[in-house]
Write a structure and sequence with these properties.
Elements (H helix, E strand, L loop, with lengths): L30 H21 L3 H16 L3 H9 L5 H14 L3 H30 L9 E5 L2 E5 L9 E4 L9 E5 L2 E4 L1 H4 L5 E3 L4 E2 L4 E2 L4 E5 L7 H13 L4 H31 L2 H14 L3 H6 L1 H12 L3 E3 L2 H8 L1 E7 H5 L5 E7 L5 H12 L5 H8 L8 E6 L3 E6 L2 E6 L10 H9 L3 E7 L2 E9 L6 H10 L3 E5 L4 H11 L3 E3 L4 H12 L3 E6 L5 H6 L2 E5 L5 H6 L2 E3 L6 H35 L5 H20 L37 H9 L4
Parallel strand pairs: 11-18, 11-20, 18-19, 20-21, 21-22
Antiparallel strand pairs: 1-2, 1-3, 3-9, 4-7, 4-9, 5-6, 5-8, 10-22, 12-17, 13-14, 14-15, 15-16, 16-17
Length: 677
C-alpha cells in the first residue's frame, strides 16, 4: 500500500459472507512496524559500533537497516512503476536511493524507518476501524439448532437452508433471518439497530440475524441463508461504502495526483538550476530533501481514513452511511424534511371513529373500505383491515395516485379516498372535527353515494419531539412533507415542534418542494425509502427510516437508519459534522506542512533528517486526528445503546432450565413442547 499511501483494501468476505480477518490484532503484529523496529535497532547498533572506529561495519549495518525499512514500500513501488503508476512511494524510493548514493546512509535508513512507521500506523488504524464493523459478523453464533424431519440437531450456520426450522433459546443469537412460527419473546436488537429497548415478538413476526432472544424459547422458519441475511447484507453494503469517495477525498486526490510528478519536476529544477549557481552535489542533496518535504502522503490519507472511521462508527450505532460523499454531505445539512407516516409517526394507525350515512352500519362501511384495501400495503389499509373480521376483496381495483382507490363489489362501483376527491359537503363538520384531533379521514362511496367517513389515527412517535429539539439545537431547520390533509398534518407537526408543514402532496410534489424549502442550503429527506423515493433521490441526502431488512430502503437511500428511534437522526447528523470537521482539518494541515517544508528544504535551512522527522511526525498526527472520527458522543437526552465490540456481549443470561437443554436436543425438544421458560 506504500505507493497509494492510503490505499488499504477491505478484507474480502468469505464464501459464507463473513469477513476473513487476517489483519494484525495488536500494534506489534503489524509487519511494517516489525521491520521498522528491526531496522531501528540495527541502525542504533551500527551507529554505536561506528563510534568505536569500526566504520565499515557501521556502514554495512546502516545499509542493511535501510534495506529492511525499504522492504515495506520499495517492492510495491516497483510493481506500480511497471504499470505506469507514480505515487508517494516513488518519491520515498528516489530519496532513499539518492541519499545512499550521496553517502548519507544513516539519513537514508532513518527516512525508510520513519516512513515504514507511518505506513504501519496507517495500516493498523485502518484495520482497527474496519474490525469494529466486521465484529458485527461475529454476532452470528458458531452453531445453530434446527429441526429437520422432527429431529433437532446442531449445525453450522453455513449449512442452514431456507425453510429450516431454527430453535432459538433465551440468551441466544439468531444465526440468520426468519419468521417466528411458535412461541413469543422479546428481542434485543441493540447490536444491529443501536436501540437498547427490546421489542416484543410473537408468531408471524420477523427475526433478524444477530438478534438476542431475551424471553421464551421460540421456533423460527428460516427465510434467508446465513450469507444472505440482513446482517451480512449490512456489512457488505458498508464495506462497499467505505471505498466510495466523497468530495473532500476527491479534493485530496485532485491535489495529490498531479502533485507527485510536479514534485519530481521541482526537484529536478532545484538540482539543475542550483548546479549552475553553485556546488552540484549540494543542490542535488537539497533536491532530495525537497522530494521528501513535498511528499503528499499525509494529504493522501487525510480523508480516506476519516471516512473509514466515521462509517464504521456509525454502523455500530445503527446507521448505514453509504460512502465518503454521504458523510460529507451529511456534515453540511442545514434543513431536514420529514415524511409523516412511518417517520414522525409510529406507522401503526388504528381506526378511531366511523361516521356513517343514515341506514348504513359501521360494519357495512368498514367492509366496503376493506374490500378495496384488501391487497394494499399502505399503513391506512392495514388499520382498516385490522378493524374487520373477514374481507371480501373487490374486483377491478385501481389506484388513483394522490386520491384513492376504485373498484367494484357485488356489481356496484365503490370508491375510497381523500375528502378532496369527493365533490360534496356531506360529513364536512365531522371531517373537520376528526382532522383537528389529528386523525386522517377517508370517505367511502358506493354506487355514487357517500356512505361513511372513516377516521384513522397514527400516533406520533414518543421520541419525535425530542429528536426535533435536538435537530434545532444543531442549527438545523425542519419541515413536514405529507400527503395527508392540512389539519391533521398541522396537529401532529405542532406536537412534534415543527412549524413548516406542507400537506396534501403527491410524491412528485414532495420532490419539487425540496428546493424551495432548502433555499440554497443543503437538505436531507427522511422517509421510508419506498413511497418517498422521488424525494429521497432529489434531496442532497436521502435517509431511510427503520430500514432493517428492507432491501429497497437500503439500496435507494444515501443513509439508512436501521432502528425505529428517531433520535438516531440528529445523532448521525452530529457525528457526520464531527467527521467532516476532521477531514477539513487534515487537508488543511497536510497542505500547510508541504507549503512550509518545501521552501525551507529548497533553501537548505532543513536537512534531510529534520525534514523526514517532521514530515513523518505530521503524518502520524494526521492519522491520530482521523481516528477521532470513530468517536461518537451522544447528544443531550439521547440514551446511548450498549457498546458492541464483539459478538460476546450477550446481556441476557439463559434461564437455568435451559442450561442443560442447550446442548441436549432431546431435552430441548421437551422444553419447547411444554413451553418452559
Amino acid at each position: 500500500m506504500a505507493d497509494a499511501c492510503c490505499g488499504p483494501t477491505s478484507t474480502p468476505p468469505s464464501a459464507d459472507g463473513r469477513a476473513v480477518d487476517d489483519t494484525p490484532q495488536r500494534l506489534w503484529q503489524v509487519r511494517e512496524l516489525q521491520l521498522a523496529a528491526a531496522a531501528a535497532i540495527l541502525l542504533a547498533v551500527s551507529w554505536a559500533i561506528g563510534r568505536s572506529g569500526a566504520e565499515t561495519v557501521a556502514t554495512v549495518g546502516g545499509l542493511v537497516a535501510a534495506a529492511l525499512a525499504a522492504a515495506t514500500f520499495v517492492p510495491a513501488t516497483l510493481r506500480n512503476l511497471r504499470h505506469g503508476r507514480i505515487g508517494v512511494g516513488t518519491l520515498m524510493t528516489i530519496a532513499l536511493v539518492g541519499a545512499i548514493a550521496l553517502g548519507q546512509i544513516p539519513e537514508a535508513a532513518m527516512l525508510g524507518i520513519l516512513f515504514s512507521i507511518a505506513e504501519g500506523l496507517e495500516e493498523y488504524a485502518v484495520t482497527k476501524t474496519r474490525r469494529g464493523l466486521r465484529a458485527l459478523l461475529s454476532l452470528v453464533p458458531p452453531t445453530v439448532s434446527v429441526i429437520r424431519d422432527g429431529t433437532e440437531s446442531i449445525i453450522s450456520p453455513d449449512d442452514i437452508v431456507i425453510g429450516d426450522t431454527m430453535v432459538l433459546r433465551p440468551g441466544k443469537r439468531a444465526a440468520t433471518d426468519g419468521t417466528i412460527t411458535r412461541g413469543s419473546t422479546n428481542l434485543d436488537l441493540s447490536a444491529i439497530t443501536g436501540e437498547s429497548v427490546p421489542i416484543e415478538a410473537g408468531v408471524g413476526d420477523e427475526v433478524h440475524a444477530g438478534a438476542i432472544n431475551g424471553g421464551g424459547a421460540i421456533e423460527i422458519s428460516v427465510t434467508a441463508s446465513a450469507s444472505d441475511s440482513s446482517l451480512a447484507r449490512i456489512v457488505h453494503i458498508v464495506e462497499q461504502a467505505q471505498d466510495r469517495k466523497g468530495s473532500g477525498q476527491r479534493l485530496a486526490d485532485r491535489i495529490a495526483r498531479p502533485l507527485v510528478p510536479s514534485i519530481m519536476i521541482l526537484a529536478v529544477l532545484v538540482a539543475g538550476v542550483g548546479a549552475m549557481l553553485g556546488d552540484p552535489m549540494l543542490w542535488l542533496e537539497r533536491a532530495l530533501v525537497v522530494l521528501v518535504a513535498a511528499s503528499p502522503c499525509a494529504l493522501a490519507i487525510s480523508v480516506p481514513l476519516s471516512v473509514v472511521a466515521a462509517i464504521g462508527a456509525a454502523s455500530r450505532n445503527g446507521a448505514l452511511i453509504k460512502g465518503g460523499a454521504a458523510v460529507e454531505e451529511l456534515g453540511r445539512i442545514r434543513v431536514v424534511a420529514l415524511d409523516k407516516t412511518g417517520t414522525l409517526t409510529a406507522g401503526t394507525p388504528e381506526v378511531v371513529d366511523v361516521v356513517t350515512a343514515p341506514g348504513i352500519s359501521r360494519v357495512d362501511a368498514l367492509a366496503a373500505a376493506a374490500a378495496l384495501e384488501a391487497r394494499s400495503e399502505h399503513p391506512l389499509a392495514r388499520a382498516i383491515l385490522a378493524a374487520v373480521s373477514t374481507v371480501a376483496a373487490a374486483d377491478d381495483v385501481a389506484a388513483i395516485p394522490g386520491h384513492g382507490l376504485t373498484g367494484t363489489l357485488d356489481g356496484e362501483t365503490i370508491r375510497l379516498g381523500k375528502p378532496s376527491w369527493f365533490d360534496t359537503d356531506m360529513f364536512r363538520s365531522d371531517i373537520a372535527r376528526l382532522q383537528t384531533a389529528g386523525a386522517t379521514v377517508v370517505l367511502v362511496e358506493r354506487a355514487g353515494v357517500l356512505i361513511a367517513a372513516i377516521a384513522v389515527r397514527d400516533e406520533l412517535r414518543p421520541e419525535a419531539a425530542d429528536a426535533i429539539r435536538q435537530l434545532t439545537a444543531l442549527g438545523i431547520d425542519t419541515a413536514m412533507l405529507t400527503g395527508d390533509n392540512p389539519l391533521t398534518a398541522r396537529t401532529l407537526a405542532a406536537q412534534a415542534g415543527i412549524t413548516v408543514v406542507h400537506a396534501e402532496l403527491l410524491p412528485e410534489e414532495k420532490a419539487s418542494l425540496l428546493a424551495d424549502i432548502a433555499a440554497g442550503r443543503k437538505i436531507a429527506m427522511v422517509g421510508d425509502g419506498i413511497n418517498d423515493a422521488p424525494a429521497l433521490a432529489t434531496a442532497d441526502i436521502g435517509i431511510a427510516m427503520g430500514a432493517m431488512g428492507t432491501d429497497v430502503a437500503i439500496e435507494t437511500a444515501d443513509v439508512a437508519l436501521m432502528g425505529e428511534d428517531l433520535r438516531h437522526l440528529p445523532q448521525v447528523l452530529a457525528h457526520a459534522r464531527h467527521a467532516r470537521r476532521i477531514m477539513v482539518q487534515n487537508i488543511a494541515l497536510s497542505i500547510a506542512i508541504i507549503g512550509i517544508l518545501v521552501p525551507l528544504a529548497a533553501t537548505g535551512i532543513l536537512s534531510l533528517t529534520t525534514v523526514v522527522l517532521v514530515h513523518e511526525l505530521a503524518e502520524v498526527l494526521v492519522i491520530a486526528n482521523a481516528i477521532r472520527a470513530a468517536r461518537t458522543t451522544p447528544l443531550p437526552g439521547f440514551i446511548p445503546p450498549p457498546v458492541v465490540s464483539s459478538g460476546l456481549d450477550i446481556t441476557v443470561a439463559p434461564a437455568p432450565e435451559f442450561e442443560d437443554s442447550c446442548c441436549n436436543p432431546a431435552l430441548a425438544r421437551s422444553d419447547l413442547r411444554y413451553g418452559r421458560r
